[in-house]
Amino acid sequence: MTQLWKFGAGELASMIAEGETSSVEVVNAHLDRIDAVNPQLNAITRVLADDARAAARIADDAVAAGAQLGPLHGVPCTVKQNIDLVGSATNWGMPAFADAIPPVDSPVVARVKSAGAIPIGRTNCPDMALRVHTDSGLFGLTRNPWDPTRTAGGSSGGEASALAAGMTPIGIGNDIGGSLRNPASCCGIASIKPSAGRVANCTLIPSADGPLSFQVMPTEGPMARRIADVRLGLTVMAGRDRRDPYSLPLADVAPRDRGRSLRIAVLSEPPGGATDARVAQRVRAAADVLTDAGHVLVDSEPPRFAEGVDLWGQFLINDVRGLMPLIGGIMSDDANAFIGRALDHYPAMDLGDYTGLLMARQSLMRDWAMWFNDVDVLLTPTWTQLPFAHGWDVADDASSLATLELMRCVTHANLLGLPSACVTAGLVDGVPVGVLLTADRFADGIALDAAETIEDAFALPLPIDPN
Questions:
Q1: How many CB atoms lie within 10 A of CB 277?
Q2: Where are the alpha helices (DSSP H) in 293-332?
Q3: Active site residue 6
Q4: Which of 69, 132, 168, 457 has a Cα-to-Cα distance from 353 of 20 to 30 A?
């Protein structure tokens, strides 16, 4: 049989349910893979071997007893280290939280466990998840399995690196500024930032409550090697939880009628900054795949694109400004350097300015909603540049600001609550380049459908052995 760590989550669940393999065998195969490749990548920061093996034995007993099985029964998964998982620290990549053990699972972890998945490890993220390069003060640098000199992205970089290298078949990350999609693009995997409210979010450490941008912009979601597993993960994770007052009873992300054409708007070189010509070419190649599949390109640019990028930055960074007296002293020097330059870039706001920002956000939400009357999906780069070398984002002021520029396409989905799927569009100079499929609010399934069409053409040979 093919090595078990090479299969996807849905495939493994079917194999376990049908008796083709056991959960114990699957878990052990992934633990062995972690032992083999994680020392090169530093993607998984804590291995939950004993608990995972015990859970696998229970899962196999359930299969033998003919019990009703969940859609991820007996399948290992990984959990980003800033999401509450009982029995391991929600450490946010920082020494100050190294021993911060949560009393309960976060809603998303509870749902994944209820579906039968078995947490096998925690994955790395930068300090407070406030950087798009995964290098934490507690655990250090995560490497990209395609090129160890390049970033794995962030802040869910540990998840993406582990998935690409076969250490896990499905993972849980989160996203306030592309953190599910930045690393997916860098490592050649797939992910979706779900519509606001589709996946409940409540992490108790350091606090269940935060400033407004931390209430309405972040969401947790699935990461996997293929869109089919992203869709499966999102179906499992979706739904209301009373701990999250913004969560909604939404679950359906089933594939649409394949006979219906989608209207696709394309921004291969989006406003607000430079775009590497090779990245723009991959976007155009993805657009060609969609048209070859029968979809229709429409000549339409989303409203106030550059303004949306700026509003996202103002909203997030001014709320982070208020948190700096609490977190600045416990973050690493590099994390403080990156945030400090962002604070310098976005001026402080008074109450009137902040109120105006919220009014502008609502206006932009309305404008994009109306724009989606005539467009089904927006296709853009994920990053407008190739994955950068380790530490480039904090090398100097210019590099930090250029980092904010290259990630500009990911920001609208967070600001406006939209679903945004990331899928690879192939390799450039040996590293993956991802594209985004962003759709109207609650049209998560449509974004995934378009992404799956692109994946059919450009899927990379995952998992890979680290270079």
A1: 9
A2: 305-327
A3: no
A4: 132
Closest listed residue to residue 116, CA positions, set 227, 14, 251, 230: 14
Q: What is the pLDDT of residues 26-70, one digit of tens each?
A: 999 999 999 999 999 999 999 999 999 999 999 999 999 999 999
Could you count the other beta carbons within 10 Å of the beta carbon of residue 112?
Answer: 27
What Å distances lie between residue 17 and 29, 166, 199, 288, 303, CA to CA?
17, 21, 26, 39, 48
Please pick, among 23, 106, 136, 179, the residue that the annotation labels catalytic: 179
Which tokens hold the place of 172?
A: 């849980």
Q: Which of 235, 237, 236 is nearest to 200 (CA)?
A: 237
Q: How far apart are CA 243 and CA 61, in angstroms?
A: 32
HSE-CB for 457 with a 13 A CA cutoff = 19
pLDDT class of 260 with cuts at 50, 70, 90: confident
> What mean pLDDT do residues 320-335 have?
97
Q: How far from chain centre, in Å, is Cα 320? A: 21
Is 399 an annotated catalytic residue? no
The angle at the Cα of 220, spanning 3 to 434, to the nearest 5 degrees, equals: 60
Other beta carbons less than 10 A from residue 454's beta carbon: 28
Q: Which of 22, 155, 161, 268 is catalytic?
A: 155
Q: What is the pLDDT of residue 257?
A: 59
So what's the pLDDT on residue 250?
82
Residue 219's CB is within 10 A of a number of other CB atoms, namely 29
The closest of 458, 45, 63 to 282, measured between CA atoms, is 458
Spot the catalytic one: 23, 80, 113, 191: 80
Active site residue 155: yes
